[in-house]
Amino acid sequence: xxxxxxxxxxxxxxxxxxxxxxxxxxxxxxxxxxxxxxxxxxxxxxxxxxxxxxxxxxxxxxxxxxxxxxxxxxxxxxxxxxxxxxxxxxxxxxxxxxxxxxxxxxxxxxxxxxxxxxxxxxxxxxxxxxxxxxxxxxxxxxxxxxxxxxxxxxxxxxxxxxxxxxxxxxxxxxxxxxxxxxxxx
Length: 185
Description:
The protein has a domain at 57-184: Alpha-Beta Plaits (2-Layer Sandwich), CATH 3.30.70. Strand 2 (17-26) and strand 3 form a beta hairpin. The mean pLDDT is 89. The chain is 24% helix and 36% strand. With 185 residues, it is an alpha+beta fold. The relative contact order is 0.25.
């Protein structure tokens, strides 16, 4: 049985991660906040006066990766919360209805065979640690919550990865995306 690991990201006036920049790539923005924090539950007790928005997701089994890709990723990916990784980026993403109207094999073809999402990303590991959370099944406003951590000297490497991914066919199906840059406080 696959374990379900919930996460809730909070944007507000307090938190572990200070917001350095919030940039809406496409679609509606989120309210501007000063801090982001994350809790491994969907119902943490936080003062409502400190929270502007919440984003929920779960980290379960990989959706589009094949076993060989999962094994290759696990062999080189860095863990989260490394002491040197004082920068992070939270990128909530929603894909269009056209994406979800495709069959699983059609999405997989665009995701990896055409866009090479996993293959592109592999070149940037272990400098960038990452975790993907799914929100679509929870009725959340974003399908995916992508979380990245990296050392300050790897920010340009991270930016290069984003440019490559955003120039793929897969990204033509993204209809809402916000890039939230963070630094640990």
